[in-house]
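Same chain as my last thread, 107 residues:
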Amino acid sequence: MAKPEASVRELPDGSLLGPNGVVYRRTPVRLKRRNATELIASGAPVVTSVYPEGMTWHQDVAATQSWADILPRLVVGKPPPAHDLQWVGHLWQSDTGEPLLVFVGEH
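reply #2:
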């Protein structure tokens, strides 16, 4: 994975506070290859969450590199039993509609 640029924090209500000071809330939108690729191309940041590292914020080049690492292991349907690292992603948004891609890894 690319080196993180800053940290992200989970707030008591379950929303995420990015290092940019923006609060993001989870939407029901599941990330698939196409919509995630489009959002990354538009400059959306990425948060990865996997044990034991926890949550990591990736922006700009780091977000693009993280997406390249995640893409071959992205699960878009029902997740199979994990035998190797796999990722499930959801779209999170700020109150003003700024996107955040959050990928949770399981291994």
